[in-house]
Structure formats: C-alpha cells, structure tokens
Design a protein that fits this description.
Chain C: This is ABC transporter permease. The complex is a heterotrimer of chains A (about 260), B (about 240) and C (about 240). Chain A is mainly α and about 260 residues long. Chain A contains 11 helices and no strands. Chain C has one domain (about 1-235). The chains are: A mainly alpha (about 260), B alpha/beta (about 240), C mainly alpha (about 240). The interface of A and B includes residues 91, 92 and 95 of A.
Chain lengths: ~260, ~240, ~240
Amino acid sequence: MTFPNTVAAEIRKTATLPATMVALTVAVLGPVAITLINAVGVRAALRSGRPELTAYTSPVEAVFSAVPIGTVGAVVLGVVAVSGEYTANRANIGGGRQITTTLTATPSRLGVLAGKAIAVGLLVAVAALVAIPASLALAGGIIGGDAPPTPDGVLSRSVGAGIYWMLTALTALAVTVFTRNGIAPIIVLVVNSSLVSVSVLLSHLTPLARFLPDLAGMSMFAGDLLAFDEALAPLTGGVVMATWTAGLLALAGAVFRWRDA
Amino acid sequence: MVRMLSVERLVKRRGSREILTDVTFRAAPGRVTGLLGPNGAGKSSTLRILLGLDRADAGTALVDGQPYRRLRQPLRTVGSMLDGSGAHRSRTARNHLTWMARSNGIPTRRVAEVLDQVGLGAVGGTRVGRFSYGMCQRLGLAAALLGEPRALVLDEPVNGLDPEGIRWIRVLLRGHADAGGTVLLSSHLISEVDQIADDLVVIAHGRVVAAGPIREVTAGYPTLEDAFFALTQPVAGGR
Amino acid sequence: MIRAYGRAAATELAKLSGLPAVLATVLGTIGAAMVITGALAVSPVGADEPVAVVLQAVPYLQAGTISLGVLAVGTEYTDGQIHTTLRCVPDRLTVLAGKTLAYLAWATGTAVAALATGLLTTRVTLATRDVPVVTDGPPENIVGAAVYLVLIGLLGVALATLTRAVVPALVVTLSLILVVSPALDAITPHARYLPGRAGGLLYLPDPAPVLTPTTGLLVLLGWVVVTGGGAVAAFRRRDA
C-alpha cells in the first residue's frame, strides 16, 4: 500500500513546517487568549452589576466569539501546506521547489492531494480538540457562579466549530492549489474569517448569501453571534459548507492532475 | 585610483559557535584573488561582512579603507554578486537592474548594456522566476557590472554556468584585473580557481590556513588540489 | 541626506511598480470598493447617503493598504532580494525611509482611487434605482477615511520589517485588525485604544465619545510610531 505512506509523508512534511507550528499555535492559543480576555471582561461587567456593558454574559458565548481567531490558524495551515511546496529555495530560483521532489517521490497527483487534505484535516482536528475544551473550561472557571445558566447545545456547537475549522482549512488548501501562491488566499480568507465578513455584507443583498460556504458553516456554532437573520439550521449549514469544500477539493484535484508541476 | 579590499582579524559568531576566527587577507588591484575552501568554511560569511550585510563581532572589512556601509554609491565602487540573482522572481530582469541603477544614480542606458554583455539582451522583459539557474547567475553578474566598478566581489561566480559561460567569465575577470581592477572571488572548485586566480586565500573551519601568490601556496605540492587537501584537512593539514 | 532619501524613494517606487502583486493589490482594492459599495447601494436596507455607504466599505478596503505595506517590505525577503537592496543602499535608515515614502505614495493613490470609485459607484447605483440622494454626509469623513487607510497600512510595513516575510506579516496584521479587534470590542471598553478602533474615529463617529477624531488619530499614530520604532531598531541591528 502506497497511500498510507503518502499520508504519513504529508503529515510529517506539513507538521514540521515552521509555518505549521505557528498556525497551530494561533489556532490553539488564539481562542484561549481571546476567551480569557472576554471572560474577564464579562466577569467584571457581571460583578459591577452592569451586564449591559458587554454584548453577552454567558461563558459559552465568550468562547464562541473567539472562534474566528482559530479560523485564521486553520486558514494559514491549509494555505502553507500547499504554498510551501511552491516556494523556491533562495539559492536556486530556477527550479528548487519542493513540489518537484514531492511529485517525483509520489507521482500520483490525487494521492498527494488526498494525503495533504488528510494531514491538514487531522492537524486542525487536534488543534480544535485542544483549543475548544480548554477555552470552555477557562471561561467557565473565570465567570463561574456569576454566569447565567448554561444554554443548550454547547457540545454540538463545539463540534460545529471544530468542523468549521476543518472545512475552512480544506477550502484554503483547495484554493491555494489554484493560485500556487499563499498571498491572495491568505488575504481573502483571513478577511472573511472575521464575523463581519464580505459574505455577511452580501447577505444584505440577497438571502442566497446564506448558502455561501462561510455563512452556511458559521451557523454550526455561531448561534446568536451571527449578525444575520435568515441563517440556515446548523446541520443544513454544515452540509452546505461540506458540499462546497468537497466541490473545491474535487476541482483542485482536477487542476492539480492536469497541470504541469 | 587604488581599489584595495582588506579584511583584518575578522571574527563572527553565530550563537556560541565561532564561524570566523581572525580572518585576515587582502585583495590587491590588478590581481584576481581566489578565496578557496570547502563548503561551510566561511567564504560566504566573509564576503557578506565585506559587503556590509552582516556585522562582524570583531575586526574590520574595508573597501579602500572604508567600511562598505559608509559608501554613498557603492555600486560604482564595488560590484558584487552573491548566490543566485538576488531579484524577486516576479520582476523582469530589466526592472530589477533599473531599480538598482536608480538607487546609485547610474544612467539607465547601462541596464541594456550589461544585459547584452552577459548575454541576456533578448530576455530582459522576462520574469526572473522563469530563468534557469545559469541565467540567474548571469543576471547576478550583470548586477555586479552595472556601476562599472573598479572592484568585483563574486561569491561562487561559475556555479551553474555552461562551459561557454565559464570561459567568458574567465576572460572578463582577467581583463578586469589587467586593466587595474580588483577581483575577489570565492569558490570551492579547485580547478577553476587554479585557472583564474593570481593570489590565493585558503580558508577552512573559519580560519585562513594559507594565503599568498598561487605559486607560493602550492609550493611543495604536486598540484593545487594536493595543496588544498593537505591544507584544509585538520589531521593532515597545516604548515 | 535629503537627496539620498529622495533617491531611495525613487528606487523603491521603481521596485514597487515592477511587482505584479502590487498592481494586483491596487486594482483589487479599487475593484472591491466598486463591488462592496455597489452591493450596499442596491441592498433593500441600503442607505441613501453615498458618503455613509462608502464609509461602510472602509473596513474591507483596509486589507488593500495593509497588503501594500506588507508587500513593500516583505517581498525583499523572497529570493534574497534584500541582499541586493542593501548592497545598493548600505544605510539601513535610508532604505526604510525610501520604502516608507514609496509606500505612502502608492497607498495614498490607492486609497483616493478606491474611495472615489466607491462614491461614484454608489451615486450611479442609487441613480439607476431612482433613489433620491437625501444628504451627502460630511466630506471630511472621506478625507479621514483616506488618512486612516494610509496610516493603518504603515502597521503592515512595520510588521513585515519585523517578521521578514510576506505571509506571517499579512496574517498578523490582518487578524489583529479584522478579527481580534472586533472580538475584543464586544466585551471591553479598552478595545477603543486598539489601532483599528482608534483610527476608525477618523471616519466613523463614536456613539459614546471618549476619544475625539484627533485623539483617535494620535492613538493610531502612537501605534505606528511604536511598531515602526521597533522595526527600525531591528532592521538596523540584524544581519541581513
């Protein structure tokens, strides 16, 4: 079996990129740090008896409003997994790109891409498994007894946020296959990671905007944080975003196969 | 005008490791000086300090008695080339040389002249990213020649050049020195240095192990290659 | 000295115009201004004030000037071009001064063109929808928006100098201003001292005015000076 080897190689290659470590750090420490600041702010507002000072008072919302910074980490991870292959060594601009090594080692284009997708998906899943429970525990600990009762669906929203990160990372990976350069995908996807994304803007224009991948996906975890009325149901949203991601990956596979390295 | 390059008791540390120890040598006008040493010996580090890119922890590296960073229009004094083209891959070769010329007040007609001189006249409008390794080397040489400098400092100039390119650069450097210019080049290719250089500085493990006219350095050895291995190997080396 | 800076600025202008990514960023920013203001102007909840519509687009447009700032410095570190730059102009301060001046020229042009395009798009769109333009908001807010867009990109210049690479500088600057800052804004009043929020007062009125546009500008300039100072110190001290 060569495919497990390909996956193993891609995991090793992606996990050892310095940029990956930075992205994972952002994806884990970013949400935890923002949660910390949010939770301290919420506690201060509750203790001073002025909960109207903050946009929410629940520890859970303190966590989910921090999810976008983790999305940034996921975007970076997906982008560098591909763009790292196309970065020339400084010394030999003519041809010193890792993609030539990768494709001479594993000629199957689809195998390489699938391996990369699995590697990126696993790394993001690990980040989510650490970051979200840690943030929830932290927010609960800080706000503690001052908090209003915990709303329902925390588990499903947590899982939703993790899935949102994974699908975002895979979307970033697919888009970077098209551009072969990290700059444009980083700009567009980081800007769109914010809760005031371009898609939210488009939602004023047409209700169809809720079927855009990020808006659809955000309904998996955002709850009332989404500044947008006609959001899809969480499960529907997840399915819509997954469909987008699968479509983009399929297109990326076709392009990657067809193109010269 | 004399264009003397002098390196005096240079020390450079990276972390706790000393990569250059008391490196001292001169490159004189009218001569081609070859800096010879195995990979990682400290050749490039020495040249980078001479060109003001890195700082020395001790010692000096001077161009005509002045540190490179003090030069107002350095390209008119010292033309240099480091590994590769030194150009962003999405620029055209012409744009790369044009901004370089502008930075030193060099007339822009020189851009076309040096492109022709290094044989890239036909591809001046091509993005550097599409160049082969040898073409990048030629672009690096064009950049070195741009300001019509009296001194040339070249790091591994023949790397990636075809036989015709190697002969061309040999003739060019010889002519430059014979016209009174100074040439300092580094290489790990013994035979190349043997054919080009008048003076030799052999460097190993960050120290100068031999320096002087090529005949003096190789005296007592059948060939330069024998001299090189004897000098650079810690066990057998040293005189 | 002045002449050296002028020459360095001319050099950096030539460099920027040779980069396709810079041209793409400029056109992309102007295009984004057109699309976003167009979308806002046709939306049913849309405003009938062209100035207000354009100002709503500024948070998106800042990605353009930030990218310009990052590219101006960050591309030096691709393919080792920084070695060429420093061999041409060995004085570190002159290099950074030239880069800053060239950035300011490009960013000002981009910001003005994008805002003008936005105003025009809004007016044309509103006219085709037969929406009467009620008032034209105070035009000084448009000037404020242009100043803001140019200044916020200086943070990109500084962070690219510190990180010595395009992608990390983009990620840090964009996520701090577009992701972290709004997340904190929902919860703590101190968020008003973050560069995006404080500078935002140059074009958006504050409902609970603690900072005035002038003090907001000063806070933003403070951020620029601090990060820029760190960048200059690092650039001068480090080996290339």
